[in-house]
Amino acid sequence: MDKFIINGGVQLEGTISVSGSKNATLPIAVAAAILADSASVIHNVPNLRDVETLCAVLEVLGATTKYKNSTLYIEPISRLVHEAPYDLVRKMRASIYVLGPLIARLGRAKVSFPGGCAIGPRPIDLHIKGLERLGAKIQIIGGYIVAEADGLVGAEMLLRGQYGSSVGATANVMMAATLAEGTTIIRSAAREPHVSDLARFLNAMGANIEGIGTSVLKIHGVKQLRGTEYAVVSDDVETGTFMVAGAITKGDIFVKNAVPENLTAISEKLTEAGVQLDWEDDGVRVTTPRQLQAVDVRTDTFPGFPTDMQAQMMGFLSVTPGISIITETIHTDRFIHVGELNRMGADIQVDQNSAVIRGVPRLNGAPVMASDLRAGAVLVLAGMAAEGETTVSRVYHIDRGYESIEKKLASIGADIIRVNDYGDRRRFPYHEPQYLLVHHTPHRR
Ligand code: EPU
């Protein structure tokens, strides 16, 4: 298992590029593989473990996938398999995205029931409710979701749970509804940038979706969808993470491919804390010319502050003077990073779904462990701001969602290296192993 060794205290300087969105790529790849009847070419696909895992799931279902230089080529075959086994689904919750499309395309699906994960229980009742409203008959048998449908029919539904709208349920039902008979209306639909990107991709395949970017999606069913060529939107969470990297190291960086309308809540909170953001056509310059100050943050569904940026923001606020409070309303147990930040000298106390952060003058390097993707990202940020050496272990969590993060950060001055189990140290630039593809050409949408 690889580790990162980070020597903190360097002010980052230069241009860092954002890759395509992980959370848009995953359902887009599923739609291309299962819903379309011909091949798709998808550009700006990040080189990530989660994308690799999803492609393995799609291959088991009968699709062919090929990834090179940020482009994913997907060929659906006519005789798709309807079963997604436990061994694959357990590796990544997003595998649940195959459920709706399989029911729509094949009239049946058997998908392993995804379990909880480090950030909480993560139920799928809204996915099931929505697909049942379209006419699917769904049972849970032996740890599997077993679904059957004799043709899906459009319906009106409210996809809202205790924690608000659901990204996954909206995407799953929207994909299934594209091939249903008649019109589906999803009220309280998730509006996250990756949901809108999926909708745009589906329309490019021939679907008829109205209301993209709003909380009411109207999907008029069509007979068939064809493959298409498309470029995935930039990753808003990677962008936010880099913006925090600039701020926490008091650097002067330009985050290229940042899309302002997808980052309003993050930008607003950083600005309120005293960070200077200067937007240009192709990105944003991040500097900290003023005294920073504490801010309160409450996570919410889009356009609110994203839960996927909560940990990174907490890292930043842990070294920002004053007392900040972060309230997590989406994944209410998502505080596993607090213990690790406190090991580095932060002063953070959790009370139910809120964290009280008393800004300290500095963090101290320490051995720490990534426990999930974003909890791992904040440890890299904290390590860059800390005095001395930080070792972040279990970086495979970070590799799930950040493309070559250490290379990108090293290219703007961070002192970070990847070390494998055998102690081989790799400082950027290093020779890439075969499976990593580095010739990334970001697309600005
Ligand atoms: N929820 C339900 N019932 C459901 C579905 C969700 O109660 O049927 C609850 C969840 O437990 C949670 C809230 O609703 O409290 C929101 O969950 P949502 O369905 O929106 O999350 P998701 O689709 O499972 C996606 C992202 C997550 C991100 C959330 C929230 C992907 C692949 N994953 O998950 O991303 O945190 O939306 O924005 O898109 C990450 O990238 O680090 C990550 C965890």
Task: Summarize this structure as a short list of keywords or feature phrases.
445 residues, alpha+beta, five-stranded mixed beta sheet, four-stranded mixed beta sheet, 25% strand, disordered C terminus
Provide an overview of this structure.
The structure is a single chain. With 445 residues, the chain is of the alpha+beta class. It has 14 helices and 27 strands. The strands form 7 sheets. The chain has a 5-stranded mixed β-sheet with strand order 24-25-1-26-27. Strands 2-17-19-18 form a 4-stranded mixed β-sheet, covered by helices on one side. A hairpin with a 2-residue loop joins strand 22 and strand 23. Helix 1 packs parallel to helix 7 and helix 6 runs parallel beside helix 7. The protein is globular, with a radius of gyration of 21 Å. The two termini are 35 Å apart. The C terminus is likely disordered. The structure holds uridine-diphosphate-2(N-acetylglucosaminyl) butyric acid (EPU).
* Structural Rg: 21 Å
Q: Into which percentage range does the β-strand content fall?
A: 15-25%
**Largest beta sheet: strand ordering:** 24-25-1-26-27
The largest sheet is:
5 strands, mixed
Considering DSSP H and I runs of 4 or more, what fraction of the residues is helical? Answer: 25-40%
Tell me the total number of β-strands: 27
Structural class: alpha+beta
Question: What small molecules does the structure contain?
Answer: uridine-diphosphate-2(N-acetylglucosaminyl) butyric acid
Span between termini: 35 Å
Mean pLDDT, to the nearest integer, reads 93
Strand and helix layout:
Blueprint: E1 3-7, E2 13-17, H1 22-35, E3 40-43, H2 49-60, E4 64-68, E5 71-75, E6 83-84, H3 86-89, H4 99-106, E7 108-112, H5 125-133, E8 137-141, E9 144-148, E10 156-158, E11 160-161, E12 164-165, H6 167-177, E13 183-187, H7 193-204, E14 208-210, E15 216-220, E16 229-231, H8 236-248, E17 252-256, H9 264-272, E18 276-280, E19 283-287, E20 297-298, H10 310-317, E21 323-327, H11 337-343, E22 347-351, E23 354-358, E24 367-369, H12 373-385, E25 389-393, H13 396-399, H14 405-410, E26 415-419, E27 425-426
Helix pairs in contact: 1-2, 1-4, 1-7, 4-6, 5-6, 6-7, 8-10, 8-12, 10-12
Bound molecules: uridine-diphosphate-2(N-acetylglucosaminyl) butyric acid.
